[in-house]
Amino acid sequence: MEEERAPARKAANGEDSIYWDKSKNRYVGAVSLGFTAAGKRNRAKVSGATKTEVRRKLRDLKKELEQGSKTLAHYTVGQAVDDWLAQGLRGKAEGSVDTYRSLARTHITPRLGKAKLRSLEADEVDAWLEGRAELLATTSLQLLLSVLRRSISHAQRRGRAVRNVADFVVAPEGRPGRPSKSLSLGQAESVLRAQAGSWIHAYVVLALLVGTRPEETRPLTWQHVRLDVRGDEKPHVQVWRSVRRHGDMKTHKSRRSLAMPKYVAVVMKAHRDQQQAALKAAGRPWNAEGLVFPNASGDLRTALDVRRNFRGLLKEAGLPHPESWTTRELRTSFVSLLSDHGLRIEDIARLVGHSGSNTTERVYRKQLRPVIEAGAEAMDEIFSDGGAADDPT
Predict the structure, then answer these.
(1) Active site residue 193
(2) What pLDDT is recorded for position 360?
(3) How far apart are CA 158 and CA 311, in angstroms?
(4) Which H helix or E strand runs over 205?
(5) Which of 184, 242, 336, 361 could form a disulfide with 366 if both were Cys (CB 3.0 to 4.6 A apart)?
(6) What are the residues whose beta carbons fall under 8 Å from the beta carbon of 97, sequence distance 6 or more?
(7) Is 331 part of the annotated catalytic residue set?
(8) Low-confidence residues of the chain, pLDDT below 50?
């Protein structure tokens, strides 16, 4: 039998109140949370079809408040994620923030965004991730779960959530990630001939024959490219900084100095001379602290710009489907070419700045032949008869 909707006495200040909301056709219960910093009364509300249901919801709400949470009935997963993106990522690298925003916008907000955070269950998160597993690789699913977990943790620290259901969830197995590729020797020779004399040609020569990471190559400055050496010292590149936050390297072994193969030294000298001549013609001084591969304004090139130019070079080199390659695969090619030539995997790991040989073996090496020597000499031997390295101009 429907409860009588007779008006109740007005609640005193600080008391709970239950009233009939004609516009919602439901009972509404409110509990006072005091005042906001602006002096406005802060009241949390719940609703239900009967007064009994509303009283139960008010009791549950008070239990949450006693545990230190101020979770409102309408506070959603989407709001929690938005709050974390706005407040919880200060000082993080711009690229990381863009990645988190993209994941939230594409995979969290459309499917979980409207769910009430206080009533979100682990089973719902499991079901959501299982649905995403049809589209995403395992690592992407793990990152997606991390975004949700950190968003709820941020809400907990601000008293907007009692528990973090994401802590009780494990990311499922996703789709296999796209396997990286490696240039064959014939493809590498074609690539080393393409667009000779251009900045992207010099970039590719350095990355392919020395093995630098994309995030190490883009911020490289001339003061770390040692071409004018004396005595027994060989031309080398000092890989000491990256585009990571504060210029940090990926691991403690990533900071290293790498000898250049002869062809690389020749190409880099020609690239430096060309850059110096262009700056002189423009009435601008050349500075050793300047970038080796700057954009037209002299600033750091974006990864997108480098990738676009790299694919244009691959197209000229005659590689099929150049759009399927990334600049990071110059590094996998470096490892594979050295391994196929007989360099020990432990030596290759030191060259590419890995803390151990496991990653080099498992991820980077595409041909599998063990054994000896060092990078620059090996690359000189590999390309000594191919003709690609004879004349960089």
Answers:
(1) no
(2) 44
(3) 47
(4) helix 199-210
(5) 336
(6) 85, 89
(7) yes
(8) 1-4, 6, 8-14, 37, 243-253, 354-373, 386, 393
CATH architecture for the domain at 185-382: Orthogonal Bundle (1.10)
Q: Name the active-site residue from 213, 272, 301, 365.
A: 213
Strand partners, 257: 238
Residue 54 CA to its chain's centroid (Å): 45
What's the pLDDT at 246? 46
Report the predicted TM-score, pTM, of the whole model to 2 decimal places: 0.57
Q: Which of 51, 55, 56, 250 is catalytic?
A: 250
Residue 248 CB partners (closer than 8 Å, separation 6+): 242
Query: Which region, left, alpha or beta, applies to residue 353 given φ > 0 means left and ψ of -120 to 50 means alpha?
Result: left
DSSP string for 295-361: -TTSSBPPHHHHHHHHHHHHHHTT-S-GGG--TTHHHHHHHHHHHHHT--HHHHHHHHT-SSHHHII
SS3 59: helix
The reply to whether 256 belongs to the active site is no
CA-CA distances (angstroms) from residue 84 to 65, 92, 271, 330?
22, 12, 45, 36
Chain centroid offset of residue 181 CA: 20
Q: Angle formed by the axes of helices 375-382 and 329-341, to 10°? A: 80
**From CA 165, how far away is CA 124, in angstroms rounded?**
10
Per-residue pLDDT, 296: 92
Instruction: Return d(Cα 140, Cα 136) in angstroms, integer.
Output: 6
Q: What are the tens digits of pLDDT across the range 321-331?
A: 999 999 999 98
Catalytic residue chosen out of the listed positions 150, 364, 365, 366: 364
Q: CA 259, CA 250: separation in Å to the nearest integer?
A: 20
Q: Which CATH architecture has domain 77-168?
A: Orthogonal Bundle (1.10)
Residue 114 a catalytic site member: no
Ordered by start, the domain boundaries in the chain are 17-66, 77-168, 185-382
Q: How many helices (H) and strands (E) are present in the chain, helices listed first?
A: 15, 6
Question: Is 154 assigned a catalytic role?
Answer: no
pLDDT in tens, 101-121: 999 999 999 999 999 988 888
Q: Of 220, 355, 230, which Cα lies nearest the Cα of 293?
A: 220
